[in-house]
Amino acid sequence: MIAYDRRGCARSERPKSYERTSAAEHADDAAALLDALAATPAIVIGRSYGGTVASDLALRYPDRVRALVLLEPDAPRELAPAAAAWVDALGDRLRQVGAQAGVDAVGKALITEVAGDSAWRSFPDEWRRVVTDNGPAILAELEGEWWLEADAAELATIAQPALLVAAADSPPEFHEPIKAMADALPNARSVLVGGGHIIDPAAPEVLAFIGEVLGRAEADTASASTP
User: Fold this and answer.
1) Phi, psi (5° rounding) for residue 190?
2) How far apart are CA 1 and CA 5, in angstroms?
3) Which of 60, 57, 41 is nearest to 49 (CA)?
4) Neighbour tally for 120: CB within 10 Å
5) Under CATH, domain 23-81+148-220 is a member of which superfamily?
6) Quick check: helix, strand or coil at residue 46?
7) Helix, coil or strand: residue 190
8) Measuring CA to CA, which residue among 67, 84, 45, 53 is closest to residue 173?
9) Residue 71 to residue 206: CA distance in whole angstroms
10) Per-domain boundaries in the chain
11) Cβ 112 vs Cβ 119: under 8 Å
12) What pTM, to 2 d.p., does this model score?
Protein backbone atom coordinates (compact mmCIF):
# COMPACT_ATOMS: atom_id res chain seq x y z
CA MET A 1 0.00 0.00 0.00
CA ILE A 2 1.20 3.50 -0.85
CA ALA A 3 -0.22 6.47 1.06
CA TYR A 4 1.19 9.88 0.21
CA ASP A 5 0.65 13.47 1.33
CA ARG A 6 -0.54 15.79 -1.42
CA ARG A 7 1.63 18.69 -2.52
CA GLY A 8 1.75 21.23 0.29
CA CYS A 9 0.09 18.93 2.84
CA ALA A 10 1.54 17.33 5.99
CA ARG A 11 5.04 15.98 5.23
CA SER A 12 5.14 17.08 1.59
CA GLU A 13 7.01 20.27 0.74
CA ARG A 14 5.05 23.47 0.38
CA PRO A 15 6.26 26.23 -1.94
CA LYS A 16 7.08 29.47 -0.10
CA SER A 17 4.40 31.19 -2.12
CA TYR A 18 1.61 28.60 -2.30
CA GLU A 19 -1.50 30.46 -3.34
CA ARG A 20 -3.23 28.06 -5.75
CA THR A 21 -3.03 24.56 -7.16
CA SER A 22 -5.37 22.23 -9.06
CA ALA A 23 -6.67 18.69 -9.19
CA ALA A 24 -4.69 18.24 -12.41
CA GLU A 25 -1.45 19.30 -10.73
CA HIS A 26 -2.07 16.81 -7.93
CA ALA A 27 -2.81 14.08 -10.50
CA ASP A 28 0.49 14.87 -12.25
CA ASP A 29 2.23 14.44 -8.89
CA ALA A 30 0.46 11.12 -8.27
CA ALA A 31 1.44 9.80 -11.70
CA ALA A 32 5.08 10.79 -11.14
CA LEU A 33 5.08 9.10 -7.73
CA LEU A 34 3.63 5.86 -9.12
CA ASP A 35 6.23 5.89 -11.89
CA ALA A 36 9.06 6.52 -9.43
CA LEU A 37 7.94 3.58 -7.30
CA ALA A 38 7.28 1.33 -10.31
CA ALA A 39 3.79 0.79 -8.87
CA THR A 40 1.65 0.88 -11.97
CA PRO A 41 -1.06 0.05 -12.69
CA ALA A 42 -2.41 0.81 -9.23
CA ILE A 43 -5.80 0.50 -7.60
CA VAL A 44 -6.30 4.17 -6.73
CA ILE A 45 -8.42 5.19 -3.74
CA GLY A 46 -9.41 8.80 -3.20
CA ARG A 47 -11.74 10.46 -0.70
CA SER A 48 -13.55 13.74 -1.39
CA TYR A 49 -11.12 16.05 -3.26
CA GLY A 50 -8.74 13.09 -3.42
CA GLY A 51 -11.42 11.30 -5.43
CA THR A 52 -11.37 14.16 -7.93
CA VAL A 53 -7.59 13.81 -8.20
CA ALA A 54 -7.96 10.05 -8.70
CA SER A 55 -10.54 10.58 -11.46
CA ASP A 56 -8.26 13.02 -13.26
CA LEU A 57 -5.39 10.54 -12.93
CA ALA A 58 -7.50 7.83 -14.58
CA LEU A 59 -8.63 10.22 -17.28
CA ARG A 60 -5.21 11.53 -18.30
CA TYR A 61 -2.95 8.65 -17.21
CA PRO A 62 -5.11 5.57 -17.88
CA ASP A 63 -2.14 3.21 -18.00
CA ARG A 64 -1.28 4.05 -14.38
CA VAL A 65 -4.68 3.00 -13.03
CA ARG A 66 -6.01 -0.55 -12.67
CA ALA A 67 -9.19 0.42 -10.83
CA LEU A 68 -10.74 3.35 -8.96
CA VAL A 69 -12.32 3.60 -5.51
CA LEU A 70 -13.95 7.01 -5.11
CA LEU A 71 -15.19 7.86 -1.61
CA GLU A 72 -17.71 10.71 -2.02
CA PRO A 73 -15.72 12.44 -4.76
CA ASP A 74 -16.65 15.60 -6.59
CA ALA A 75 -17.88 15.45 -10.17
CA PRO A 76 -17.52 18.03 -12.96
CA ARG A 77 -19.48 21.14 -12.02
CA GLU A 78 -21.91 20.80 -14.91
CA LEU A 79 -22.88 17.26 -13.86
CA ALA A 80 -23.44 18.10 -10.19
CA PRO A 81 -24.72 21.67 -9.88
CA ALA A 82 -26.09 21.34 -6.34
CA ALA A 83 -22.77 19.96 -5.10
CA ALA A 84 -20.90 22.71 -6.95
CA ALA A 85 -23.01 25.38 -5.24
CA TRP A 86 -22.43 23.71 -1.85
CA VAL A 87 -18.65 23.66 -2.36
CA ASP A 88 -18.63 27.27 -3.58
CA ALA A 89 -20.42 28.32 -0.39
CA LEU A 90 -18.02 26.20 1.67
CA GLY A 91 -15.07 27.92 0.03
CA ASP A 92 -16.51 31.33 0.92
CA ARG A 93 -16.98 30.28 4.54
CA LEU A 94 -13.44 28.88 4.82
CA ARG A 95 -11.93 32.05 3.33
CA GLN A 96 -13.88 34.05 5.87
CA VAL A 97 -12.58 31.82 8.68
CA GLY A 98 -9.02 32.33 7.43
CA ALA A 99 -9.45 36.10 7.28
CA GLN A 100 -11.11 36.42 10.68
CA ALA A 101 -9.60 33.64 12.82
CA GLY A 102 -6.35 32.95 10.97
CA VAL A 103 -5.15 30.23 8.65
CA ASP A 104 -4.68 27.78 11.53
CA ALA A 105 -8.47 27.69 12.01
CA VAL A 106 -9.21 26.64 8.42
CA GLY A 107 -8.50 22.90 8.81
CA LYS A 108 -10.83 22.43 11.76
CA ALA A 109 -13.51 24.49 10.00
CA LEU A 110 -13.26 22.27 6.92
CA ILE A 111 -13.63 19.02 8.86
CA THR A 112 -16.54 20.26 10.95
CA GLU A 113 -18.30 21.57 7.83
CA VAL A 114 -18.06 18.32 5.85
CA ALA A 115 -18.23 15.76 8.65
CA GLY A 116 -19.43 17.48 11.81
CA ASP A 117 -17.83 18.55 15.06
CA SER A 118 -17.93 14.99 16.40
CA ALA A 119 -15.60 13.89 13.57
CA TRP A 120 -13.08 16.56 14.54
CA ARG A 121 -13.25 15.55 18.21
CA SER A 122 -12.68 11.91 17.22
CA PHE A 123 -9.37 12.69 15.53
CA PRO A 124 -6.22 11.84 17.52
CA ASP A 125 -4.23 14.89 18.58
CA GLU A 126 -1.60 14.16 15.92
CA TRP A 127 -4.21 14.21 13.13
CA ARG A 128 -5.70 17.45 14.42
CA ARG A 129 -2.23 19.05 14.33
CA VAL A 130 -1.69 17.83 10.76
CA VAL A 131 -5.04 19.17 9.56
CA THR A 132 -4.43 22.47 11.36
CA ASP A 133 -1.04 22.84 9.67
CA ASN A 134 -2.67 22.14 6.29
CA GLY A 135 -4.60 25.41 6.39
CA PRO A 136 -2.51 27.15 3.69
CA ALA A 137 -2.75 24.11 1.40
CA ILE A 138 -6.54 23.93 1.83
CA LEU A 139 -6.90 27.57 0.80
CA ALA A 140 -4.54 27.06 -2.17
CA GLU A 141 -6.69 24.16 -3.36
CA LEU A 142 -9.86 26.23 -3.05
CA GLU A 143 -8.32 29.11 -4.99
CA GLY A 144 -7.21 26.86 -7.85
CA GLU A 145 -9.00 24.60 -10.31
CA TRP A 146 -10.85 22.44 -7.79
CA TRP A 147 -13.17 20.67 -10.21
CA LEU A 148 -12.57 17.84 -12.62
CA GLU A 149 -12.21 19.30 -16.10
CA ALA A 150 -14.21 16.76 -18.09
CA ASP A 151 -17.64 16.20 -19.57
CA ALA A 152 -19.73 13.04 -19.63
CA ALA A 153 -18.26 11.94 -22.96
CA GLU A 154 -14.72 12.23 -21.62
CA LEU A 155 -15.62 10.38 -18.42
CA ALA A 156 -17.01 7.58 -20.56
CA THR A 157 -13.47 6.87 -21.75
CA ILE A 158 -12.48 5.73 -18.23
CA ALA A 159 -12.91 2.00 -18.74
CA GLN A 160 -11.35 0.75 -15.50
CA PRO A 161 -13.60 -0.80 -12.84
CA ALA A 162 -14.78 1.86 -10.40
CA LEU A 163 -16.46 1.69 -7.00
CA LEU A 164 -18.29 4.83 -5.90
CA VAL A 165 -19.01 5.00 -2.17
CA ALA A 166 -21.57 7.29 -0.52
CA ALA A 167 -22.05 7.77 3.23
CA ALA A 168 -25.55 7.55 4.68
CA ASP A 169 -25.14 10.52 7.03
CA SER A 170 -23.66 12.92 4.46
CA PRO A 171 -25.71 15.81 3.05
CA PRO A 172 -27.66 15.03 -0.13
CA GLU A 173 -25.34 17.35 -2.06
CA PHE A 174 -22.55 14.82 -1.45
CA HIS A 175 -24.61 12.07 -3.10
CA GLU A 176 -25.28 14.00 -6.31
CA PRO A 177 -21.70 13.53 -7.65
CA ILE A 178 -21.90 9.80 -6.89
CA LYS A 179 -24.91 9.43 -9.18
CA ALA A 180 -23.35 11.65 -11.84
CA MET A 181 -20.10 9.68 -11.89
CA ALA A 182 -21.92 6.33 -11.78
CA ASP A 183 -23.98 7.38 -14.80
CA ALA A 184 -20.92 8.57 -16.73
CA LEU A 185 -18.35 5.86 -15.99
CA PRO A 186 -19.05 2.76 -18.10
CA ASN A 187 -17.73 0.21 -15.59
CA ALA A 188 -18.87 1.69 -12.28
CA ARG A 189 -21.04 0.63 -9.40
CA SER A 190 -22.07 2.52 -6.28
CA VAL A 191 -22.64 1.47 -2.67
CA LEU A 192 -23.96 3.19 0.44
CA VAL A 193 -22.14 2.76 3.75
CA GLY A 194 -22.93 3.97 7.24
CA GLY A 195 -21.44 7.04 8.85
CA GLY A 196 -20.38 10.37 7.46
CA HIS A 197 -18.00 11.85 4.91
CA ILE A 198 -14.79 10.51 6.49
CA ILE A 199 -15.34 7.10 4.87
CA ASP A 200 -13.01 4.28 5.87
CA PRO A 201 -10.87 3.35 2.82
CA ALA A 202 -10.65 -0.16 4.29
CA ALA A 203 -14.42 -0.58 4.65
CA PRO A 204 -15.62 -4.14 3.90
CA GLU A 205 -17.24 -3.01 0.65
CA VAL A 206 -13.96 -1.47 -0.50
CA LEU A 207 -11.87 -4.49 0.44
CA ALA A 208 -14.29 -6.80 -1.35
CA PHE A 209 -14.00 -4.69 -4.50
CA ILE A 210 -10.20 -4.66 -4.31
CA GLY A 211 -10.17 -8.43 -3.86
CA GLU A 212 -12.42 -8.82 -6.87
CA VAL A 213 -10.16 -6.61 -9.02
CA LEU A 214 -7.00 -8.42 -7.93
CA GLY A 215 -8.61 -11.81 -8.43
CA ARG A 216 -9.70 -10.84 -11.91
CA ALA A 217 -6.16 -9.65 -12.73
CA GLU A 218 -4.65 -12.92 -11.50
CA ALA A 219 -7.16 -14.89 -13.56
CA ASP A 220 -6.36 -12.84 -16.65
CA THR A 221 -2.64 -13.41 -16.12
CA ALA A 222 -3.12 -17.16 -15.75
CA SER A 223 -5.26 -17.27 -18.87
CA ALA A 224 -2.68 -15.33 -20.87
CA SER A 225 0.13 -17.65 -19.79
CA THR A 226 -1.75 -20.88 -20.51
CA PRO A 227 -0.17 -22.65 -23.52
Assistant:
1) -125, 150
2) 14
3) 57
4) 19
5) Alpha/Beta hydrolase fold, catalytic domain (3.40.50.1820)
6) strand
7) strand
8) 84
9) 9
10) 23-81+148-220
11) yes
12) 0.91
